[in-house]
């Protein structure tokens, strides 16, 4: 299935949480058991996404990658990062809470969080679904992609950033936001 054959939502308002409807569409179709988020920041987005996956799957594994508190003004500038420094502790607490909620429902949620640059922490691995929202420098996006390129569904945030757009265009990812908007999201389907 290519991204062109999927009926993606059209939401020109794009309020807080606007990406979730795109993720839910992919989750509904591909039923992922494994999810990787590169740039998981404080775990809020990962928690929402994993909760939705758990609503339909019995077993889910999550891997989160971020600089967390290793990030600073220099890395923010180099990696074209506008959301500030993430929090390992906040992410950990969200994942633990989700793990407990899953266990109460007799479901399995396993996770691992990895602090540091993905060049040092991210293995070459295939996941059912990936969200690339870490460093936005061209080289970083390409390196992250190279390590997860065998994954089934790969979302790229911030397609509006020139370096990210260049990488996505070379890779063949499809921009899902075709109307005028400052926010952009691209996807690559490998199924």
How does this model look, in words?
The protein has 191 residues and is of the alpha/beta class. Helices cover 37% and strands 19% of the residues. The protein has a seven-stranded mixed sheet with strand order 3-2-1-4-5-7-6, sandwiched between helices. Strand 1 (34-38), helix 2 and strand 2 form a beta-alpha-beta unit. Helix 1 (20-30) packs parallel to helix 2 (44-54), helix 2 (44-54) packs parallel to helix 4 (88-104) and helix 6 (138-148) packs parallel to helix 7 (162-171). It is globular. The termini are close together. The relative contact order is 0.18.
| Shape call | globular
Number-wise, the strands total 7
H/E series: HEHEHHEHEHEHEE
Overall average pLDDT:
93
Low-confidence runs of at least 5 consecutive residues:
none
The share of residues in extended strands comes to: 15-25%
Structural class: alpha/beta
Q: Helix share of residues?
A: 25-40%
Summary of the model, kept short:
The chain is α/β, with parallel strands linked by helices and 191 residues long. The protein has helices at 20-30, 44-54, 73-78, 88-104, 118-121, 138-148, 162-171, and strands at 34-38, 59-66, 108-115, 129-132, 153-157, 174-175, 185-189. The longest helix has 17 residues, at 88-104.
List the helices and strands and how they pair.
Layout: H1 20-30, E1 34-38, H2 44-54, E2 59-66, H3 73-78, H4 88-104, E3 108-115, H5 118-121, E4 129-132, H6 138-148, E5 153-157, H7 162-171, E6 174-175, E7 185-189
Parallel strand pairs: 1-2, 1-4, 2-3, 4-5
Antiparallel strand pairs: 5-7, 6-7
Helix pairs in contact: 1-2, 2-4, 6-7
């Amino acid at each position: 299935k290519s991204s062109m054959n999927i009926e993606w939502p059209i939401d020109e308002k794009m309020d807080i949480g606007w990406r979730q409807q795109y993720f839910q569409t992919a989750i509904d179709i591909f039923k992922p058991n494994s999810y990787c988020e590169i740039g998981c920041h404080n775990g809020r987005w990962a928690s929402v996404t994993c909760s939705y996956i758990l609503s339909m799957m019995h077993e889910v594994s999550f891997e989160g990658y971020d600089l967390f508190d290793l990030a600073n003004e220099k890395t923010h500038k180099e990696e074209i990062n506008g959301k500030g420094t993430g929090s390992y502790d906040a992410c950990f607490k969200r994942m633990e809470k989700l793990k407990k909620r899953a266990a109460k429902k007799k479901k399995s949620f396993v996770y691992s969080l990895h602090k540091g640059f993905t060049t040092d922490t991210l293995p070459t691995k295939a996941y059912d679904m990936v969200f690339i929202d870490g460093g936005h420098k061209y080289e970083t996006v390409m390196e992250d992609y190279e390590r997860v390129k065998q994954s089934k569904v790969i979302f790229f945030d911030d397609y509006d950033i020139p370096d990210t757009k260049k990488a996505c265009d070379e890779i063949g990812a499809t921009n899902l936001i075709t109307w005028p908007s400052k926010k952009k999201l691209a996807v690559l389907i490998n199924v």
